[in-house]
Amino acid sequence: MTDAIPSQEFMLLDWMRRLGGKRIPAALLSRLRDEAAGMPLLEGLSTEETDRLVRLAGELLLAKAVTGLEDMEVDDAMRCRLALQLALPGMNLGMRAYENWREAILYPAPFVVRNRWQDGIGLTHEGEQVLIGQAHYQGPLVFSWPDVNESPLLDGWNVVIHEAAHQFDMLDGPANGAPPLHKGMDRAAWSRAWNQAYRQFCREVDHGVEGWLDPYASENPGEFFAVLSEAFFEIPHLARRDYPELYRLLSQFYRQDPAARLPPVDEESVMPVQPS
Questions:
Q1: How far is 185 from 160, CA to CA, in rounded Å?
Q2: Which of 30, 122, 162, 211 has its C-alpha lying 20 to 30 A from 154's C-alpha?
Q3: CA 114, 118, 227: angle at the middle one, nearest 5?
Q4: Which H helix or E strand runs over 113?
Q5: Cα distance between the two ends of the chain
Q6: What is the side-by-side strand order in the sheet with 141-144?
Q7: SS3 sequence, 37-56?
Q8: 138: pLDDT confidence band, cut at 50, 70 and 90?
């Protein structure tokens, strides 16, 4: 375990952020490397990939504020652990993929929000929900810190990647499972593959078919994309086995192939916990 970055280092970071500074402090890069070395999620990255990831995480910390609520103090290790997970899905996309938000907010525990939504027949409902993460269109990312801390463990879920996927999806409007695609990618082929897989998954959930993919993915196409993005980075061998076409499309979108670097995991170990 390395020494913490001195508080004045992050004070300098705050000033550089306000003034538009671009140089990432060497102590911050060093701390990011140390933190990355202990994260199972990042196993198998090449030296060049790790360098790119660490630099992007440093750029995120320069450009984005990380704020703790409910009297929670956010230290350097927390910032680095969050930034590295945020940087992983965008490692080959660059800072433009993160341009829609400026702040990440951390709660010391799952948090309560009051939401309004429409059901399948158009009736509007309002109620409270307990969440561990939330992405706002052109707004902040909000997380429960304990869940951020436990996310990079290759257990099939990752709240940071989930909310980052929503933000990528919202680069061209509200989250709908259809993010802006790169040049050369076929929008019609993307829509056809994702719509077909989503409808099939919803049928399986409706019929009580249990599998490793969280049933929450059936909520709407935006959640299906975000949950599959989690699986793509956390349990890529299962995602590639059961959703080969979606895996191929995610590889094109994220410009990564996690199955080539991560070890397979036991399917039983990542099965969602069913409510009793």
A1: 25
A2: 30
A3: 75
A4: strand 111-118
A5: 40
A6: 65-68, 103-107, 141-144, 133-135
A7: HCCHHHCCCCHHHHHHHHHH
A8: confident
115, β-bridge pairs: 127
* One-letter amino acid for residue 50 of the chain: T
Q: What is the DSSP letter of 262?
A: S
Fold classification of 19-114+135-152 (topology level):
Cyclin A; domain 1 (1.10.472)
SS3 127: strand
pLDDT at 3 over 60: no
**pLDDT above 70 (res 23):** yes
Mean pLDDT (the chain, rounded): 90
Q: How far does CA 274 lie from the centroid of its chain?
A: 23
CB-based burial label for 247 (10 Å; 0-12, 13-18, 19+): buried
In this chain, the answer to whether the domains covering 19-114+135-152 and 153-275 adopt an identical fold is: no
pLDDT tens, 190-217? Answer: 999 999 999 999 999 999 999 999 999 9
Take residue 29 and report the two structure tokens written for it.
């890069």
Contact 140, 130 (CB under 8 A): no
How far is residue 66's CA from residue 80's CA, in Å, rounded to a whole number? 10
Task: Note the helical H segments in 141-260.
Answer: 145-150, 159-169, 187-206, 221-234, 236-242, 244-254
What is residue 139's predicted lDDT score, i.e. its pLDDT?
84
Question: Domains of the chain: which residue ranges?
Answer: 19-114+135-152, 153-275
Which residue in this structure is represented by tokens 């158009």?
A: 122
Pick 121 or 45 by higher pLDDT.
Answer: 45
Length of the chain: 276
Q: Which CATH superfamily is domain 153-275 in?
A: Collagenase (Catalytic Domain) (3.40.390.10)
